[in-house]
Amino acid sequence: MEMIRNSAKALVCQEGRLLLNSHRTSDGELYYDLPGGGQHPYETMEEAVVREVLEETGLTVEPVRFAALAEEIFTNQGMWERFPQYCHRCMHIFLVKVLPGPAREKSELDFQQTGSAWFTPEEAESLPLVPLQLRGRVREVLSAPAPIYLGSLRRDEVCM
Predict the structure, then answer these.
(1) SS3 (DSSP) at 91
(2) φ, ψ of residue 114 in degrees (nearest 5)
(3) CA 45-50-53 angle, 5° bins
(4) Which of 36, 59, 69, 81 has minimal Cβ neighbours within 10 Å of its Cβ?
(5) pLDDT tens track for 101-111
(6) Contact 80, 87 (CB under 8 A)
């Protein structure tokens, strides 16, 4: 079954820092991703980003604005066979703010997630960050007066 996965991703900003989830591939490579994940049926993108951030970080957030859109298509046959639900996705990226109150227990970590850490936007731009289209553009997305289309990217590598 072919599908396009809608993902809600969050730029979680607090006190000038950005929260990123750390991940390790099956080969041990470290990369960072925005908190977030797949939209459930009948769930709005705003509801999805709030739920996903809570599950992965324990933080309760509120969307501030839609910030960017990125599309990713894996073209590797092995990826299609192993992870068909992740091979074509549109990532809707929201700027969110952390609401007051204590963090809750993380209830559902993202695939290969090992933790979460805060970085300045400048530091985040130098990390192995996904989506790849966000690399070197974090400050641009955070300061843009309107949402940015980060583009579509075809990827041939096998990852995960």
Answers:
(1) strand
(2) -110, -15
(3) 120
(4) 81
(5) 888 887 666 77
(6) yes
Structure confidence by residue, pLDDT tens digits, 54-77: 999 999 999 999 999 999 988 877
89: its two tokens? 């996705």
86-130 residue pLDDT tens: 778 899 999 999 999 888 887 666 777 788 999 999 999 999 999
Residue 98 half-sphere exposure toward CB, CA atoms < 13 A: 20
49 membership: H or E segment, kind and range: helix 45-57
- Give the range among 9-13, 34-38, 80-84 with minimum mean pLDDT: 80-84
The radius of gyration of the chain from alpha carbons, rounded to an integer in Å, stands at 15
Task: Confirm if 68 and 148 have CB atoms less than 8 A apart.
Answer: yes
Proportion of the chain above pLDDT 90, given as a percent: 64
Q: Give the distance, in angstroms, between the CA of residue 146 and the centroid of all CA atoms in the same chain.
A: 19
Residue recorded with tokens 């993380």: 106
Closest CA to 143 of 75, 65, 90: 65
Angle CA 113–114–117, to nearest 5: 100
Give me the residue label for tokens 């300045």: 120
